[in-house]
Amino acid sequence: MVAQILYNRGLTDSSQLQSFLTADESLSGDPNLLPGMHQAVARLYQALLSNEKIAIYGDF
User: Fold this and answer.
1) Distances (CA, A) of 13 to 1, 3, 22, 24
2) How far apart (Å, rounded) are the C-alpha atoms in residues 24 and 11?
3) DSSP 3-state of 27
4) How far, in Å, CA of 1 to CA of 7, rounded?
5) Alpha-carbon distance 60 to 44, whole Å?
6) d(CA 52, CA 57)
7) CB atoms inside a 10 Å sphere around CB 16
8) Helices within 1-60 (DSSP H only)
């Protein structure tokens, strides 16, 4: 399924795939500087200790 999605996005040869799948870490910021990160980590930790289900949504 992933291969089909990448193909549909026009990534058809190995060099394109390698470039797309290899993250450039210099483009990402420090996640610890995001507002509310301390509270989010504390809540996740509490959920893990309580064996709660965790859902993660992303909009990026």
Assistant:
1) 17, 11, 14, 20
2) 18
3) helix
4) 10
5) 21
6) 16
7) 13
8) 2-8, 14-21, 37-49
Least confident of 15-19, 32-36, 51-55: 15-19
What pLDDT is attached to residue 60?
Answer: 67
List the structure tokens of 39: 């509270």
Residue 36, token pair as written in the block: 């509310």
Length of the chain: 60
pTM, to two decimals: 0.51
What average pLDDT score do residues 18-45 get? 89
Can you give the pLDDT at residue 14?
A: 87
As given in the structure block, the two tokens for residue 43 are 């809540």
